[in-house]
């Protein structure tokens, strides 16, 4: 099978690349602004081409070269906080970029399945009686990133209805794992790994520990996206969420249990957000029914693997300095 992964040097894309290569597929990936360490994608660097999806001619070249049976559309400005300071760039990348991808597919005359990475951020604030969130819930995004993902999904649906391009949209909830940066699990495990190596005092600075988040391991998410490519209904929309919401305080406890050293907690006002959803938790029953997907990686394993990842990265940095 021929596979094109747009955004292969991103967190999720890198796992899809590795899995597709290991499965023996003919794989092409794109890179533009990597969000993972270079060492995490050097193993498939010879299968990458540079492509900024904001520019139609670059997408045309990638699609003509690969002529894929499956496209994973992961290229995006994917940080909600950044979307407040760079709303135009967020919209141009995520919305115009999505349109470019579908127009290139039309021009190339191919018939791939397109798995589109959408987001739980599309839902915005959700009342307690609507949790876990179903796909039928109204979309009321609270920041430009969420708005861009609503538009991304609407474009995918439009190209399916009007042009028959087989798009499948995955509304992805909190996902973490080794290589991740910028979420609570990544931040906490990184700091604790630094504490273990004596780089900072044994104090973990925290924000709001009372919120609840359903968390999926990236390896389970990659498998869900593969299953949607194979079994998802064209034009379909599927939540991909962990099956249980964890209080952030529980995550800290799991990190402490997996760590080699004790640490204390200190609330950092800079880590407290003006508004923070109390619970983010999706209903994945449509995904399970369509594909048979189930979570396989426990949260304890995810946390342990993330700590091991940071220990290894810090160890390599020490060797480089020496």
UniProtKB/TrEMBL annotation:
Isomerase found in the keyword field: yes
Pfam family, one: GDP_Man_Dehyd
GO MF annotations, alphabetized: isomerase activity
Location of the NAD(P)-binding domain: 4-306
Alphabetical UniProt keywords: Isomerase
InterPro entries: NAD(P)-bd_dom, NAD(P)-bd_dom_sf
Name of the protein this chain belongs to: NAD-dependent epimerase/dehydratase:3-beta hydroxysteroid dehydrogenase/isomerase:dTDP-4-dehydrorhamnose reductase
Organism in which the protein naturally occurs: Cupriavidus pinatubonensis (strain JMP 134 / LMG 1197)
